[in-house]
Design a protein that fits this description.
single chain; mainly alpha; Serine Threonine Protein Phosphatase 5, Tetratricopeptide repeat; two-stranded antiparallel sheet; two-stranded antiparallel ribbon; 55% helix; 3% strand; globular
Length: 307
């Protein structure tokens, strides 16, 4: 690389850094607005630099990718994680997430973490954007079978099981794709809406996650499924207890002996803390209302999404 090229690269990097610093200054001095107006448009359409950044595209792409993480994280923190519904994030108005990920993947089409994050988060914001970003990744990375896994997941969430099956079928034809792709294609065409299928999808997502955010999201989903199984089993046991004794259990400890004989899906076991109280998969004690015979998650403490 000659001196002129190095100088040009430095000018691009310096210019972009100046834009970033200016953006931060403007953010720090912005007039407070209602939440629906809190986001400004992107200060710079970085994807327009493609072909002109003289090798700095990857640096700019990483900046957009990191900013997308901070953007979503900031909204969750400001809203309060206990009030966040992972199935529907539209109330947070995260309208800049797709433009950020679009910029990142245009500048660096091989940035798999951005596609993974988009496939995990965007379906809860705008499913069409999630599909568009993932299909873009497939076009630019035809050898990446994971992108077909993401596409299958998105269509599965939309309950479009035939398209989900097609995505897994396409993925199974890519060299190096694991055998479970053909199994998932068949499963989508049979019991695609079952909880067992959901568990398999999230287990695969967690095992194959290319970044911590995707892995954490899949882990929370698995906890949610396990908790649903546990609460259904507890509800049945409480109902049997009430029928036999003519009253609700005074507390959940009363039904622990009966629960020891209950077989949970995926060979799971009920969790108990040091005091012998039943805890959810995130380790937080279940709430119990003896006046209603009802079990619930503790929304203030649990890590599991509460709808």
């Amino acid at each position: 690389m000659n001196r002129h090229t190095i100088a040009a690269v430095l000018i691009v990097v310096a210019g972009f850094s100046a834009v970033v610093l200016l953006s931060r200054y403007l953010d720090a001095n912005r007039v407070n607005l209602p939440e629906s107006y809190a986001d400004s448009d992107l200060d710079l359409q970085g994807k327009k630099l493609k072909g002109f950044a003289l090798g700095a595209e990857g640096l700019v792409a990483d900046w957009y990718w990191m900013r997308s993480l901070q953007y979503v994280g900031g909204k969750i923190v400001s809203r309060g994680i206990e009030s966040v519904n992972l199935e529907d994030l539209t109330s947070m108005n995260p309208r800049l997430l797709y433009p950020m990920l679009d910029n990142a993947t245009t500048l660096d089409p091989k940035l798999m973490a951005a596609y993974s994050f988009g496939a995990t988060i965007l379906p809860a914001i705008d499913a069409n954007q999630a599909i568009e970003l993932t299909e873009k990744g497939i076009r630019d990375n035809p050898e990446q079978w994971r992108l077909l896994q993401y596409l299958g997941y998105i269509h599965w969430r939309l309950k479009d099981y035939e398209k989900a099956a097609d995505a897994y079928e396409r993925g199974s034809q890519i060299p190096g794709a694991p055998p479970f792709f053909k199994l998932m294609a068949a499963k989508m065409r049979s019991d695609s809406g079952s909880r067992d299928t959901a568990r398999e999808i999230y287990k695969l997502a967690m095992a194959e996650a290319p970044d911590a955010s995707t892995k954490t999201s899949a882990e929370l989903r698995l906890m949610e499924l396990d908790s649903l199984d546990e609460r259904e089993a507890m509800d049945r046991t409480i109902s049997e207890f009430r029928e036999a004794k003519g009253r609700c259990p005074a507390n959940l400890r009363e039904i622990v002996p009966q629960l020891r004989g209950v077989r949970l899906p995926a060979d799971n076991d009920f969790g108990l803390d040091a005091s012998g109280d039943l805890v959810d998969p995130s380790g937080v004690t279940y709430l119990y209302d003896p006046s209603k015979c009802s079990v619930s998650l503790d929304p203030a403490r649990t890590k599991i999404p509460v709808h």
